[in-house]
Amino acid sequence: MKRKIQEKKGLWKWLPLIILSFALTIIILDTTILNVSLRTIINDLHTNIQSIQWVITAYSLMLAAFTVTGGRLGDLFGRKRMFVVGAVIFALGSFMTSISQNVGFMIFGEAIVEGIGASLMLPATASLLVSNYRGRDRQIGFGIWGGIAAGAAALGPVVGGWLTTYLSWRWAFRINVGVAALLVLGSYFITEIKDREEKPTLDIVGVILSALGLFAIVFGFIEAYTYGWFFMKRTVTILGVSLIKGAISFIPFTILLGIILLVVFGLWENYVSSKNETPLVALRLFKNTQFTVAVAITSILALGQSGLSFAIPIFLQSVKHLNALDTGFAMLPMTLMLLIAAPFSAYISKYISPKRIIQMGLIVDALGFLGLVAGIQVSASPWALAPGFMLFGVGMGFMISQASNLALSSVSVEESGQVAGVNGTLRTVGQTLGSAIMGAILISVLTSSLVNGVNTSSVIPNAIKPEISHAVAKQTSNIEFGTGATIMNSNIPTQISNTILKLSEQATVHANHVTLLVGVGFILLALFMSTKLPNRKNIEVEESLATGH
């Protein structure tokens, strides 16, 4: 059922978009802002890298597990209400994190409390945008919203690096408290459209099944590299306590458990729907081609983008020897073009259908990846990557705003919360799979290229090649964190050490090439899927899942 949105002009018209964009910014920033502050936090809290990685991992897990629930709560009890509640919880978690004196308290504040708040706010930002704008205004809104969603992740390392260098890493969370307070006050200017189609009952069993299933799958892919896909690399420890030991890795069983739980979740949702009760996710939603294809494209692109975000910094730090802050600055051309292209896509939507804009964006994305492949060379300047970054930023700007608009315009405004929740969850899962898949490809190619380089080197004597090959094969994590492969043996001549360093740089370049070319393959898959999108300018179908109309 369509409802009239009160006409506003000037600043009052776009004030809701500004408020919702600020909310999205602090949520996305917190997924990447800690990455450049790890060493400082480790020293400050007297902990280790494994414990701090749990902080970052747990925040992503909370988003993946509860974003669907957060979106559904907005549909049932009010999107603006959940937005405000989420902002208050997010502020509380940020404050707790800013005063944490040990890693346990930090995990509770940043990952659990702040993660729950973000899970309520994230789907609300998209669904409230739908309820406040229509037509071209909605396209402009999603253009800016989409640009911020993709750009904030890239800005995280820059903001985090600056705050850590000149103030303190704690200010990354103190700022959130002030922003969240402004969001609560600003919510007064956001229009709410309440659901009149379904009774406000929450599917508790669905919440538990979906949260546990998504948690298990995302956890498995995040931790696969750390603990091993099939054989355990290390003992699982949390806060210094050993939990899981053994030879066989628990990762495949964790992912399998997650899949089984999601299958049970689907069966349960069908059962709830058959009783004419309100499911957590109406599975009929996936029969909506416009929604399904748009979300699939967004997830695939998130997968490819996470591969880029994983691979390029390794090249910039291990080959070009940039620090984390300078790495963030080197990637700024992508962010700036993204922020320009996303709202510009709304302007050209007057003349071109969203389907064609998405296809244009995907083609430009592929060209951007190829430009990065050409720019990544051992002797190249970091700025040689700028053309590829700019092309990728333009393509992502075109694609992400239009795909989000397509997805959320495919159902009624009253049900946009669950759609936003599903969309956000699948994007998070896509990013997680991308980090796991693309990361595994990069590390595998890097290791094999480095070992092959050692074995075929004319400088390294044949007698010591097996020893050196074995040693460098274990040092891919050093290369990943920018230190390069080295042999800690004073008896190794300088000429051989320098050769090993050059081989590690060449292997890193080759591994980046292969990883980005795989990314091109994912982009082409998304381009093929885009042929199923409706080719029309008016995409506000607004089908009701509750009534089937």
Short description:
The protein is an all-alpha fold and 549 residues long. Helices cover 72% and strands 1% of the residues.
Widest sheet: strand order? 1-2
The tally of helices reads 18
> Residue ranges: pLDDT <50 for 5 or more in a row?
1-5, 545-549
- Give the CA-based shape: globular
Total beta strands: 2
Percentage of β-strand residues: under 5%
Helix content: over 70%
**Radius of gyration computed on alpha carbons:** 24 Å
* Average pLDDT figure: 77
Class from helix and strand fractions: mainly alpha
Sheet with the most strands, sense and barrel status: 2 strands, antiparallel
Termini Cα gap? 9 Å
- Pattern of helices and strands: HHHHHHHHEEHHHHHHHHHH
Provide structural commentary.
The protein has helices at 10-29, 38-45, 49-77, 79-98, 103-132, 135-166, 171-186, 204-227, 251-274, 289-318, 324-330, 332-348, 354-375, 386-408, 416-456, 465-473, 476-480, 494-529, and strands at 236-238, 241-244. By secondary structure, the protein is mainly α. Strands 1-2 form a two-stranded antiparallel ribbon. Helix 3 (49-77) runs parallel beside helix 5. It is globular and about 75 Å long.
Strand and helix map with partners:
Blueprint: H1 10-29, H2 38-45, H3 49-77, H4 79-98, H5 103-132, H6 135-166, H7 171-186, H8 204-227, E1 236-238, E2 241-244, H9 251-274, H10 289-318, H11 324-330, H12 332-348, H13 354-375, H14 386-408, H15 416-456, H16 465-473, H17 476-480, H18 494-529
Antiparallel strand pairs: 1-2
Helix pairs in contact: 1-5, 1-6, 1-7, 3-4, 3-5, 3-8, 3-15, 4-5, 4-7, 5-6, 5-15, 6-11, 6-12, 6-14, 8-9, 8-15, 10-14, 10-15, 10-18, 12-14, 13-14, 13-18, 15-16, 15-18
